[in-house]
Amino acid sequence: MKILIIGSKGFIGKHAYDYFTKKNEDVYGADVSVDYANPKYFTIDSTNSDFTEIFGNHQFDVCINCSGAASVPDSLVHSLRDFTLNSLNVFKILESIKKHTPNCKLINLSSAAVYGNPKSLPIKETDALQPVSPYGFHKKFSEDILYEFHHFFGLQCCSLRIFSAYGAGLYKQIFWDLYQKTKTQKDIQLFGSGKETRDFINIIDILQSIELIIKNGSFCADAYNIANGEQISIKQIADLVLKELNYEGSLSFTGIEREGDPLYWVADIEKMKKLGYQKQISIEEGIKSYIKWAKEL
Hints:
This protein is α/β, with parallel strands linked by helices. It is built from ten helices and 13 strands. The two termini are 34 Å apart.
């Protein structure tokens, strides 16, 4: 199987590149940074992405789009950039696939941010999409673009609504933030109340999900929740991380919600379970592994 991973230098993209390479698939990468050592790599122009060179010269079986911006706060400040990376570039990718390699299946990484603050839990793929940030809107737009190209042109594509991803190689978000703060702060303070909940999924289980979708999934512009169906509070997560770090300081919360952040998330993952998904990494195991990686940097 010939696979293209766009955004292959990013967190999920790099792991996906290594994962499918080890599976002996024919894997190509693409990203904005230069890599002269890899003959199966394409450098993308960050200001004016054009995928003609890629799809015009290669017939891929699957394209996994891991590219795009991934910051809610930054999307509030640089909305146009976020739109360009998360919506416009998806259109350009599909337009190039349509012209040059229409049999290529596209897996586009979306986000649980498309749901916003859900009216009920767990969140199903069929629930209303009500984003509360530009980032969430732009991921929703990308899903609409997939539907457009499937409905009008018959392209095979699907969206992965990834919930709270984490794992070795992630230099941001709560795990990294806490690890960094323990180095210099005796009193750690986080946004919110600590009661907010998330549904965390380790990178190993994200890769398992992607492989299952390639093998068994539908590519009719539908969406899949990528999560574990487990609700855990931010305070619980913070306590687990700090315990693993043997942190002896205090933890408190500002009580101020960060703009664009939803309050409570937990996914319905029955759709993925029907494809064969089974969690491989518990949150406790995942935190241990993450801290071990961070300490070895």
